[in-house]
Amino acid sequence: MKAKSFLVAGALVLTLTACGEQTAGEPVTRTEIGSGVDADQTSKPDTEPTAIARKNSPCKHVPYNGVQLTHCVANPKDHRIITALGPKGDYYRSFANLADSHSTEANSIAFAVNGGMFDTAGAPVGYYVEDGERRRELSRADGPGNFHMKPNGVFYGSDTAWRVRPTEDFYANVGDRPRFGTQSGPMLLIDGKFHPDIQQDGPSKMIRNGVGVDAQGRAHFVQSEGVISFGLFASFFREVAQAPNALYLDGNVSALWIPAEDRMDATVPLGPLIVVEKR
User: Fold this and answer.
1) Of 1, 48, 136, 193, which alpha carbon lies 20 to 30 A from 25's?
2) How far apart are CA 256 and CA 244, in angstroms?
3) ω into residue 151 within 30 of 0, thus cis?
4) What is the number of alpha carbons within 13 Å of residue 166 lying toward its C-beta?
5) Residue 130 CB: number of other CB atoms within 10 A?
6) Is residue 27 situated within a structural domain?
7) Cα(248)–Cα(183) distance, rounded to whole angstroms?
8) Domain interval for residue 115
9) How close are the terminal C-alpha atoms of the chain, in Å?
10) Is residue 224 one of the residues assigned to a domain?
């Protein structure tokens, strides 16, 4: 594995609610798709100019329908995206371990997030590619939990172009191995429309994170700092990030590393990580 550059600077540790214990090696099951609100009860994005952008940070802190969100944007002109899992049998499981395993050079990392669902050993549940090497094949299987809420999808890309596609679309149309890729589920938005099992503002509310790609090719990574429904979360991607295709990454284990803000979330042990590097 090639050495990559990481910076740790007085990290602020935030503890989030962890998911329940599962049998070792079994996929972590998280089923909390919300429903129960009529489709015409649409949500409206906050229009007040209250988003906070901290100096030198690639992220903004945005209030949205009563929930604080952290919204980080990666631009292909300024950033590259990699996935990071760690050697087989010795996964990183945290941002701190990821940083400790690599050389340190100032200002090399814009931000990083946990990158999709995983089993209790830390292995990806679905498709996973790191540095052009496929380490887990695409999963088209049925099963329990959010990962199997069809359609699920894949976030993938090369050094300069990034996409989010539903799994079956990816299977049918992507022949070349991407530079990076991670599979998760469910899709939040497909061509600007809600996933068919997501209502506008269902009763299930959790901390959540996800990723979407806009028409300019920028990747929008969003994490809620409080609990939010799937519907409101998807609405943010559609109305604010303007990303017609967006993918749910995970729930209460969601975590961010933003060196410019001295923030390094410490949650339960993580699985795949997505790292946004400065060019």
Assistant:
1) 1
2) 23
3) yes
4) 18
5) 21
6) no
7) 10
8) 54-278
9) 20
10) yes
